[in-house]
Specification:
By secondary structure, this protein is α/β, with parallel strands linked by helices. The chain has four domains: 130 residues, 3-Layer(aba) Sandwich (Rossmann fold), CATH 3.40.50.2300; 171 residues, P-loop containing nucleotide triphosphate hydrolases (Rossmann fold, 3-Layer(aba) Sandwich); 97 residues, Orthogonal Bundle (Helicase, Ruva Protein, domain 3); 56 residues, Orthogonal Bundle (Arc Repressor Mutant, subunit A). Helix 3 links the parallel strand 3 and strand 4. It is flat. The two termini are 18 Å apart. The C terminus is likely disordered. The structure holds adenosine-5'-triphosphate and magnesium ion. The site of magnesium ion (MG) has 3 residues, from helix 7.
């Protein structure tokens, strides 16, 4: 770890020297200023981790220095603790300073140990807060991506891309067929980011009539038109500090596209009937199931808006192109709906699973989810059987018969090779946990509720131990 930097502000040279010596001996990097003015200059230049200042200084005093340090560090998004040195007799002022945000104060003359202790505590607390902030982001990310089931290479690509843009405010365009998880992904992008404390506002661009678009998105002032009885906040403003999800963005009327583009470019909106603009800070995530580039070519979508939205494009693969995810998704929804319907479900019979695997799912994950929900509701027993699947799914096998060899092979396995099946399940979970933790094994082990050692053992067992990420 890099050594922590401490800025010492004191107009008494002998004391300054003593403090420097004391703190350097503790392994800190120090710099010294003899006035608050000089101290602020150094603060900007050196970005210290802690400021230790005398209260009584020539010119700007210690309290004012404290205020400035607090404002400047707030602007940078990282708090810098300030510890005050006070002469006996001005302790009352020091107590007052605590209310202004000082971490603590030390009365002069002080014990070296006392000073060391307070400095150490202030820095430890600061490190902890920074860790917590990082952890919140990491947890949000893990949790949100953790809602995604599927370990196919196509989905791995999606996770990798999302993880890369999650902490940024880059606009992204999510493309994919209906039911592939576009909205789920948009939420993951929001809740995994530092914006998660502000709102996620979803707008279905296809559902708002053209003449209401402006007032819905930008709001209006009382009296702006007949029926405007009071001020109304628009969706842009509602998403301030957070994420605005423009769903079905390809359906947005051309006239509205101009206005949205302007709002994005200027980061301001003008409510209908208002004279002043309102600044807004939103991250835009858009989704479409249309070929948006073709819409641009056909003149139905503005090219400039297309480029503004499409800084990063995420393609959600249709389920039929990642059939290997089907068993895991089925299992996931069987468990989920089993819980919801209070029916302890064991799973799916091999025949029913073969049908599901053969079915092309034109409605993607949403269709799979609906099919499983219906089956769980209908099924009298604890396994989903072919008879509780819709006819179209039952017919899928006949339409595209599995190669005879494979079928025989599976028949032969049925009920016989429990170990192999368990191993398959186990391996699936390992892959899933590693995907969710971005390859971090310590986190993956925690996700699975097993020890790191046990995870390691299983990775070796499945020959998945090739790359050591050093998390030993
Ligand atoms: N990989 C996945 N794992 C688990 N659940 C998923 C996954 N993908 C989608 N879902 C679920 O499937 C349903 C449909 O997803 P979502 O609404 O995000 O799709 P969409 O692409 O926005 O669809 P549409 O274009 O029809 O609006 C949701 O209930 C979602 O939670
Ligand atoms: Mg959707």
């Amino acid at each position: 770890m890099a050594r922590e930097r401490i800025l010492i502000v004191d107009d008494e040279p002998s004391l300054g020297e003593l403090l420097t010596m004391l703190l350097e001996r503790e392994g800190y990097v120090t710099s010294r200023a003899e006035s608050a003015e000089e101290g602020l200059e150094q603060f900007d230049a050196l970005a210290p981790d802690l400021v230790l200042t005398d209260l009584n200084l020539p010119g700007i005093d210690g309290i004012e220095l404290l205020r400035q340090v607090k404002t400047r560090s707030a602007q940078r998004g990282r708090d810098v603790p300030v510890v005050l040195l006070t002469a006996y007799g001005s302790v009352a002022t020091a107590v007052l300073a605590m209310r202004e945000g000082a971490f603590d104060y030390v009365a002069k003359p002080f014990h070296n140990d006392e000073l060391r202790h307070i400095v150490k505590k202030a820095l430890a607390l600061r490190a902890l807060e920074a860790d917590n902030a990082r952890m919140r982001v990491a947890l949000g990310e893990r949790y949100q991506l953790g809602q995604f089931v599927g370990t196919s290479p196509r989905m791995q690509e999606v996770y990798t891309l999302v993880r890369r843009i999650m902490g940024t405010r880059i606009s992204c365009l999510i493309c994919g067929e209906s039911g592939t998880g576009k909205e789920l992904l948009a939420r993951a992008v929001h809740y995994g980011s530092e914006r998660s404390r502000a709102a996620f506002v979803a707008v279905n661009c296809g559902a708002i009539p053209e003449n209401l678009f402006e007032s819905e998105l930008f709001g209006y002032k009382k009296g702006a038109f007949t029926g405007a009885q009071r001020d109304k906040t628009g969706l842009f403003e509602a998403a301030d500090g957070g994420t605005l999800f423009l769903d079905e963005v390809g359906e947005m009327p051309l006239a509205s596209q101009v206005k949205v583009l302007r709002a994005l470019a200027e980061k301001k909106v003008t409510p209908v009937g208002a004279t002043a603009e309102v600044p807004v800070d939103v991250r835009i995530v858009a989704a479409t199931n249309r070929e948006l580039r073709a819409e641009v070519a056909a003149g139905r979508f503005r090219e400039d808006l297309y480029y503004r939205l499409n800084v990063v494009q995420i393609d959600m693969p249709p389920l039929r192109e990642r059939a290997e995810d089907v068993p895991m998704l089925v299992q996931h929804f069987v468990e989920r709906f089993g819980d919801e319907y209070k029916k302890p479900m064991g799973g799916v019979t091999p025949e029913a699973m073969r049908m599901l695997r053969a079915y092309p799912f034109p409605g993607n994950v949403r269709e799979l989810q609906n099919i499983v929900e219906r089956a769980v509701a209908l099924e009298p027993g604890s396994l989903v059987t072919p008879s509780s699947l819709p006819e179209r799914v039952q017919g899928a096998l006949a339409a595209s018969p599995a190669p005879a060899e494979e079928e025989e092979h599976e028949e032969a396995l049925e009920g016989l090779d429990l170990e192999a099946r368990l191993a398959e399940v186990e391996r699936g979970y390992l892959v899933r946990a590693l995907a969710a933790s971005g390859g971090n094994r310590t986190q993956a082990a925690r996700l699975l509720g097993i020890t790191f050692r046990s995870l390691r053992y299983r990775l070796v067992k499945f020959g998945m131990d090739e790359d050591d990420d050093g998390a030993t």
